[in-house]
Write a structure and sequence with these properties.
Layout lengths: L2 H7 L2 E2 L5 H7 L10 H4 L1 H14 L3 E3 L14 H16 L5 E6 L12 H12 L9 E7 L2 H14 L5 E5 L13 H11 L3 E6 L7 H10 L4 E5 L5 E3 L2 E3 L4 H12 L5 E2 L7 H11 L13 E4 L4 E4 L5 E5 L6 H4 L2 H15 L5 E5 L5 H13 L8 E4 L3 H10 L5 E3 L7 H10 L3 E3 L4 E3 L1
Parallel strand pairs: 1-10, 2-3, 3-4, 4-5, 5-6, 6-7, 7-10, 13-14, 13-18, 14-15, 15-16, 16-17
Antiparallel strand pairs: 8-9, 11-12
Helix pairs in contact: 4-5, 4-11, 6-7, 7-8, 8-9, 10-11, 14-15
Amino acid sequence: MTFLTALKEKVLCLDGAMGSQVQNRLKSYSGPPDFLNLTNPETIVAIHREYVEAGADVVLTNTFNTNPFKKGMTDEKIREIIPKAIENARASGASYVLYDMTTLGKLLGVDLSFEEAYRGYLNILEKLDPTQIDGLFIETMADLNEAKVAVLAAKATHPELPIVVSMTYDSQHKTLTGSDPTACAMVLEGLGVQGIGVNCSTGPENMVSIVKDYRSSTSLPIFVKPNAGMPKLVDGENLYDVTPQAFAEEMKSLLDLNIAAVGGCCGTTPAHIRMLMELVKKVSPNREMPEKVDTYGTHFTSSVLEDQEKLTAVTVELPTSERVLSTPGNFQRTMNKTIRKTISGEEVVYFDLDGTEQSVLEKLTTVFNEQPPILKKAVVLQCKEPEILESFLRYLSGKPIVLTNQEDGDTKELQRLQSRYAALWLGENRILLK
């Protein structure tokens, strides 16, 4: 049975924490656990195996820190770690092994451009043998734009692999860059991932409302991996004090929300997974999903377009001054200032790309790469040229609306864009221009 088939048949049990387990067993070791795939594989295999013996169906590879921006992670070292980490995970006897990835550890638009981050993920993904894993698990993502970059890189290198993306939120249920769960669900489903999740962040009790927001926004399978509570610093160590019994008790309310897979993040142990598995055995999966709706929105939140509803769009001229086009941050500031002055209520922004000079569009693409623009209002794009349209879909945050007459352009190319990027494609009759 494939991983995706299993998701439809049962509630899957994921493994628990790797880092805290390594700390407990190797007190003197202070480096990333990833290096232990090479230097102490016995310990890593033992941890994986204990989770499987506790009931985990799915094991994540010990590759959380394996990326080219981490200290000591040379190209050669990454090439060594990846196959060995997969081999160690497979040695556990788990039914399914997902390759584990996370943030590159750099701020998109500040430390890294969009394309630099894209190449960073390609550096990892191109070293994977897709036949040795059952999917990709992209976790602890705090920036929706970076999650988008990772998904685009994954689909470009391994389109055959299932992708699950798990976000992390603060106490206000916002990501580090301000996205709420509905925005994350909207964009990630639009990108074509096979599952969406929440991990780390907090203990189980504070994830209920996040999962409810997911469930109201997407028909995707939902994955949940809470911490064993919040860490407390004791004698210089982070300790998690939610016991396996308490953890399982708190997970009951999440299991009532029709989720597809549960596991543990920081501080969880094989004992936590064993208690969780006892609960999972009693759950009959309900795969009746909410009816799919048309969504669009910003980096921050999503909106639903009801049947026959028409949106009011306000035409906003793209800036052409050298001052705005020469500095990445200036475009975002200028546009959001214009939006505040001219657009109110539920109105959206209308950009006519067909009527914009090619030289301006080329400069905007350069600016967008350096700092993907995060606009305060949803965007409608009018464009006949696939190449120009793709540059905006690639870099714009959120899920824009696209108005385009496919008879006037390259139909095959437009269909490719539809399958690759998060956008709502509408006929012109659904928009009232103002």
